């Protein structure tokens, strides 16, 4: 019997012969470790088969095989756990295909065995396995042409490609999405060629599914990245949920497919895959005819669309060299407006960057107001530079700079150099006269002279009339500094120096 | 690779030192004003050279300074290339969305007249970052001593 062949012939070649599909050979050849693992796994039930007899033995054996398959795949989905670590690496590449093949074959075997045992009882009793089976059916390769469930099989291949794209974009914890990344390159060329047939099949399947109306509703508000779990949500009756609502929901529900929804879920994903494919088509071909196709059946909100342009522009699958921009719904799709939109997005991106730089711009929205703020900020910064350079010119005409001391403030924050410089401040009073005069002449300090920009000359008050206030000011300056100096040079007080001296200088000049 | 901040600080301090060495003790108004001007130019120049020629605004600053020292009257703005670029920029309909403010911004950012708006925003962002370090960091330190 075939089943006994399956279980008793543990060699990998026999597996290949059993599956007897030449198109699978390429993938199968790469899986020697997997094959050996499978064979070793499969060989153990042989003991059961021989021990316990005919149908019951087969029943138990098959159930156990299915369970082990499920456990393998489960360990592949979740991050490789300790006891199944040896299965994790073989599962990283096309082995999912083999699993699905095994899955099909097992099912076929179960069906062929003439319903000796309820063929789906083992499936349904293990809800986890049913969930996995649904996923595996999605990951079947294109080579499963001979399968009777044609639309069910073909479209999921697209689905896998989409899943990989989606997962790369949004890092869904969908099972098998990492392995699908490997398959993606191979599938890409195939996908382009069979897109038309997918659409046809999609329509066919759409008409056949009883939940079509639900899908229609659920599609209306969905975006590409959410379509696959959205299908399940739609099935669960959340027809009227918005795209916003689905954003939180699908992530939680991505893994929870109830057992009885296996078939429907797979068909959900199939039609959703079709739709996501049509969305991608529109992004690739800048959506002329295909968009018309999709638009007649779908309406997508602007929200959903806004997420797409960046994400769909980035996936690696289109084999062309120019930048892909997704055409939004209801907007012109000619080259000019698309380029305009790209440019506008660039500008808004940069405005956001600027918004972070300029303090106090978070509440402000709108380009014009933002620009005003930016202009004000740049002007104030420039004024500050001028003011400080003015200060420097006045205060430090002859002061010797200790470069190391100055730089050491960055490095060590030393206070010794500070004290050293403070000693030289005795020179201040004599040279502060012009500074004082300047201060007296300019009420505002910064505003007036620097108002006209950095290329204007400064109106300086003359020294002549200001002898008395100068002397008073200079004495004041001197007193101030002396008081500072007299505060002592203990370590504890240098902190206060740091605090006081800047304010002192500021009070003088403002 | 030292940061822009340290590079700028270093250059600026050296420039001011050189300035103070060359100038006399004179504290006349004129002298102070000239010193102020020198310090300001030194500040912008050291900032621009710390940034290098990677940015359009730093290039424009350095160009302006060099031309200013060489030919006092001739401004680089009148160079033929700049004229051509500016004409292209002003004729481009894309660049005049918020006419008034864009022009103001272009006047503020050095070299801003020759770019399109998108690039202008880029340059403005970088310019703001550098202006901040220029204004805050070394000068306040120098003043505190």
Structure description:
The complex is a heterodimer of chains A (510) and B (145). Chain A contains 27 helices and no strands. Chain A is mainly α. Chain B has helices at residues 4-22, 29-51, 56-70, 80-91, 99-108, 117-144. In chain B, α2 (29-51) packs across α3 (56-70). With 145 residues, chain B is mainly alpha-helical. Chain B is elongated. Chains A and B meet through α19, α20, α21, α22 and α24 of A and α1, α2, α5 and α6 of B.
Q: What integer value in Å does the Rg of chain B equal?
A: 17 Å
The rough form of chain B would be described as elongated
Query: Strand content of the residues of chain A, in percent?
Result: under 5%
What does the oligomeric state look like here? Answer: heterodimer
Q: Summarize the helix and strand pattern of chain A as letters.
A: HHHHHHHHHHHHHHHHHHHHHHHHHHH
Mean pLDDT of chain B: 77
What keyword list fits this structure?
heterodimer, A: 510 residues, mainly alpha, elongated, disordered C terminus, B: 145 residues
Short overview:
The complex is a heterodimer of chains A (510) and B (145). Chain A is mainly α and 510 residues long.
How are the SSEs placed, and which strands pair?
The complex is a heterodimer of chains A (510) and B (145).
Chain A: H1 2-8, H2 12-19, H3 25-29, H4 32-52, H5 55-77, H6 85-88, H7 95-112, H8 121-125, H9 127-138, H10 150-170, H11 177-193, H12 195-208, H13 212-220, H14 227-235, H15 243-253, H16 262-284, H17 289-297, H18 302-313, H19 335-357, H20 367-395, H21 403-411, H22 416-423, H23 428-431, H24 433-441, H25 447-450, H26 467-486, H27 491-509
Chain B: H1 4-22, H2 29-51, H3 56-70, H4 80-91, H5 99-108, H6 117-144
Helix pairs in contact in B: 1-2, 1-6, 2-3
């Amino acid at each position: 019997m075939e089943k006994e062949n399956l279980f008793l012939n543990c060699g990998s070649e026999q597996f290949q012969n059993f599956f007897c599909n030449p198109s699978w050979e390429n993938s199968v050849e790469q899986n020697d470790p997997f094959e050996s693992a499978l064979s070793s796994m499969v060989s153990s039930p042989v003991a059961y088969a021989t021990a316990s007899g005919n149908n019951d033995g087969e029943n138990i054996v098959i159930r156990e095989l299915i369970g082990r398959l499920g456990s393998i795949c489960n360990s592949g989905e979740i991050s490789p756990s300790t006891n199944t670590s040896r299965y994790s690496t073989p599962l990283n590449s096309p082995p999912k295909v083999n699993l699905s093949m095994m899955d099909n074959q097992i099912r076929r075997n179960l069906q062929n065995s003439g319903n000796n045992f309820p063929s789906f009882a083992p499936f349904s009793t293990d809800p986890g396995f049913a969930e996995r089976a649904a996923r595996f059916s999605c990951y079947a390769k294109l080579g499963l042409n001979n399968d009777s469930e044609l639309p069910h099989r073909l479209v999921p291949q697209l689905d896998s490609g989409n899943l990989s794209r989606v997962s790369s974009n949004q890092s869904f914890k969908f099972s098998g999405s990492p392995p699908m990344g490997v398959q993606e390159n191979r599938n890409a060329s195939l996908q382009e060629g069979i897109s038309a047939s997918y659409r046809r099949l999609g329509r066919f399947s759409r008409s056949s599914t009883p939940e079509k109306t639900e899908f229609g509703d659920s599609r209306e508000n969905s975006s590409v990245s959410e379509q696959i779990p959205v299908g399940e949500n739609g099935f669960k009756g959340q027809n009227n949920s918005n795209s916003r609502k689905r954003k939180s929901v699908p992530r939680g529900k991505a893994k929870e497919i109830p057992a009885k929804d296996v078939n429907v879920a797979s068909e959900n994903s199939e039609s959703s895959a079709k739709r996501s494919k049509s969305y991608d088509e529109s992004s690739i071909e800048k959506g002329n005819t295909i968009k018309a196709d999709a638009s007649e059946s779908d309406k997508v909100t602007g929200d959903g669309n806004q997420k797409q342009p960046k994400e769909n522009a980035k996936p690696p699958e289109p084999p062309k060299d120019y930048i892909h921009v997704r055409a939004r719904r209801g907007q012109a799709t000619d080259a000019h407006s698309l380029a305009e939109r790209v440019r506008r997005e660039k500008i808004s991106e940069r405005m956001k960057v600027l918004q972070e730089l300029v303090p106090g711009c978070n509440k402000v929205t709108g380009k014009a107001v933002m620009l005003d703020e930016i202009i004000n900020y740049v002007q104030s910064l420039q004024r500050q530079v001028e003011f400080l350079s003015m200060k420097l010119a006045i205060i430090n005409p002859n002061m010797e700079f200790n470069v190391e001391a100055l730089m050491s403030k960055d490095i060590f924050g030393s206070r010794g150099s500070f004290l050293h410089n403070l000693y030289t401040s005795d020179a201040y009073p004599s040279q502060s006269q012009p500074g004082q005069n300047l201060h007296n002449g300019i009420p505002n300090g910064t505003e007036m002279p620097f108002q006209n920009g950095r290329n204007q000359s400064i109106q300086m008050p003359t020294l002549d009339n200001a002898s008395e206030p100068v002397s008073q000011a200079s004495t004041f300056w001197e007193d101030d500094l002396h008081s500072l100096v007299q505060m002592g040079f203990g370590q504890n007080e240098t902190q206060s120096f740091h605090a006081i001296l800047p304010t002192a200088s500021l009070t003088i000049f403002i | 690779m030292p940061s822009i901040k340290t590079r700028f600080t270093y250059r600026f301090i050296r420039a001011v030192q050189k300035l103070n060495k060359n100038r006399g003790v004179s504290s006349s108004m004129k002298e102070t004003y000239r010193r102020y001007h020198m310090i300001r130019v030194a500040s912008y120049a050291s900032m621009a050279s710390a940034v290098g020629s990677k940015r359009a605004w730093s290039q424009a600053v350095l160009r302006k300074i060099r031309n200013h020292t060489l030919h006092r009257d001739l401004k680089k703005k009148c160079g033929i290339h700049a004229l051509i670029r500016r004409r292209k920029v002003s004729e481009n309909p894309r660049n005049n969305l918020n006419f008034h403010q864009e022009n103001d911004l272009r006047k503020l950012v050095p070299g801003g007249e020759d770019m399109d708006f998108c690039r202008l925003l880029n340059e403005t962002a970088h310019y703001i970052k550098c202006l901040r370090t220029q204004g805050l960091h070394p000068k306040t330190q120098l003043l505190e001593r």
